[in-house]
Target: Glucose-6-phosphate isomerase
Amino acid sequence: MTSEPARVPVDATTTPAWGSLTELSANLVPDLRGWFAADPDRAGRFTHQAADLHVDLSKNLVTDEVLAALLALADEVGLVARRDAMFAGEHINVTEDRAVLHTALRRPSDQPLTVDDQDVSADVADELAKVYAFAEKVRSGEWTGVTGEPVRTIVNIGIGGSDLGPVMAYEALEPYVQDGLEVRFVSNIDPTDVAQKTADLDPTTTLFIVASKTFGTLETLTNARLARDWLWRSLVAAGAIEDSEEGRSDAVAKHFVAVSTALDKVAAFGIDPANAFGFWDWVGGRYSVDSAIGTSLAVAIGPDAFADFLAGFHAMDEHFRTAPLDENVPVLMGLLNVWYTNFRDAHTHAVLPYAQQLHRFPAYLQQLTMESNGKSVRWDGTPVTTGTGEVFWGEPGTNGQHAFYQLIHQGTRLIPADFIAVANPAYPLADAVGDGGAVEAGADVHGLFLANFFAQTKALAFGKTADEVRAEGVAEELVSAKVFSGNRPTTSILAPALTPSVLGQLVALYEHITFVQGVVWGIDSFDQWGVELGKKLALEIAPAVAGDEAALAAQDPSTAALIARYRELRA
Ligand code: F6P
Model:
């Protein structure tokens, strides 16, 4: 039995907890050195386990009082009721009047769930079975192109959630990819993208997956047409098909499949609906990597690994659904983000994976978090009452260290940062020779890598005082430049290895962090109206760019002048 979600969001700023947090913040003098000295158990008390993730929150700028007030805030805004409403399939995406059920995509099939009179679990299991059967056919070589050759390259054509999740996960799980198979991703409507990704491909061994929830996205459909045209031209040039209607439709049947919620539009494009995989309007694009949108990944890593990926999501869902709030990692991390955004004037949040395979994770999180929580109105249409969505950004360590960490260590802005690492690398290498100094012969390079993770979070937390700098014999005029203030907050996340399950856990963790923040702010984290205006204007402007004088004259002076200049330069 779940409680009804609140139709009108609680204004968090009117709660007693908000008042306490305001007061606590006004009186807080961050002192991680002092807090650790006074409480030897701080690291232990602030560290939690969520599925396989070991999460150390102790280097955050919070005291027990602050954490208690944050948890009281969660209570006062009705977080638990809204979480339960999401899991139960209530229409918490109110502006689109939809359920929000990405959690159903990874629910074990023996746990039925009926939503809007539909057996959601059965639907998910059926579609997943289709995706797995297709994946097996491609992997085994049973699926062949027009010349009978098996598939060697899959090109996923999609954008936003139909690209960022699959590409991030493909890169992260590269060691699990079947030998001889490669997946490429085309997303940008810049024709360079499709041109570069197809340049060296053999059309007879290439399979395109057109992934689009709506199957109406300009970029994806344009790229799909370009890819189809490339396929036809190159197959004809190779003598693999006749240059005829029949030859072309045979090529599409054997070299194109689709993933969409709009199967009628898939058919209109010329793809046989039998070669299409569906999902549902209750899966948001940025929450869809674990739906059929992940078909390219399922082919690459295989059904067993994909099932592990889903199991990882589910393990984190269960943690979020059942762990007490004061041990609930997504809840705590979401509340910490609220603390920094609304009480400590942080505007951005860095995500710094110490795992090269997670190099696209920050980009993935940008859509997840910023398309979800970059809102100025609440779910009842009234203005938000406080700051919302931070700018998420990041690069893998240690590359970031040699680029922007200067600002995190010594800049004037507070940048909470999540450090993410795995204990066991996919490619354990030893430095056979060493450098004759700090790096000994035989040194485990991953150990050196993680020494950087631990060093950075330590330096950010505890800094270096002027006296410590002076004690090193630094000239007085350089002392201030070499001081590190410390008290720069970080969260450390450690996992045993980057398995499919761990990746699923990480993604679900951030999905739920995003949800928690959205609930506190009273916003609908599942719509994205802010992307619509630019899309519409692009369609209106396209004729002006193509030479229509009336369309050009209809533009504002700046836009008209830019288009005119573009046309001159292009000519
Ligand atoms: O424009 C934003 C957006 O709607 C995202 O929310 C979505 O992930 C992306 O476009 C792609 O949409 P589709 O999968 O329908 O092509």
